[in-house]
Amino acid sequence: MGYVIRAALESDAQGINEVSQYLGYSALSLSESLLKLQALLNSSNDWVYVAQLNDHVVGWLHLFYAHRLASESFYEIGGLVVSEDVRGQGIGRALVQYALDAHKGKFRVRCNELRTDSHQFYEAIGFSSSKSQRVFQIRL
């Protein structure tokens, strides 16, 4: 095993930033990553967990609680990334399991239609596909 799953700390910002680039997220500066991480760590509805191997962050998971007015509220995985060089070692599964163990309730995750490897991963760990949807955006 060798890795440890734990709650993220502000000092993990650089490692989280580096790992995030594996998923194709736009490159943020370290100061931008730190500001985002600080906001999540100070939120009562967000949690960030990291996988640490040999003092390096090799994966992270962001979980948030989605309140709903007219339907059941739920936890949603807002992001899960594992470094390519350690994929297939159970780190993603361990991050998800850590979140499931820490929080009880309904869980959701949204995946891009094109990320079929992600679909297979979530199905393999017990999630089931419940619907397809479109995402509409506007920037003002």
The global form is globular
The assigned structural class equals alpha+beta
CATH fold description:
Aminopeptidase
How many separate domains make up the residues?
1
In CATH, the architecture is: 3-Layer(aba) Sandwich
Order of helices and strands: EHHEEEHEH
Mean pLDDT: 93
Under CATH, the homologous superfamily reads Gcn5-related N-acetyltransferase (GNAT)
Strand content: 25-35%
Helix fraction bin: 25-40%
Counted beta strands = 5
Q: How are strands sequenced across the largest beta sheet?
A: 1-2-3-4-5
Secondary structure elements and their pairing?
Blueprint: E1 3-7, H1 13-20, H2 30-41, E2 46-53, E3 56-66, E4 74-82, H3 91-102, E5 107-109, H4 116-124
Parallel strand pairs: 4-5
Antiparallel strand pairs: 1-2, 2-3, 3-4
Helix pairs in contact: 1-2
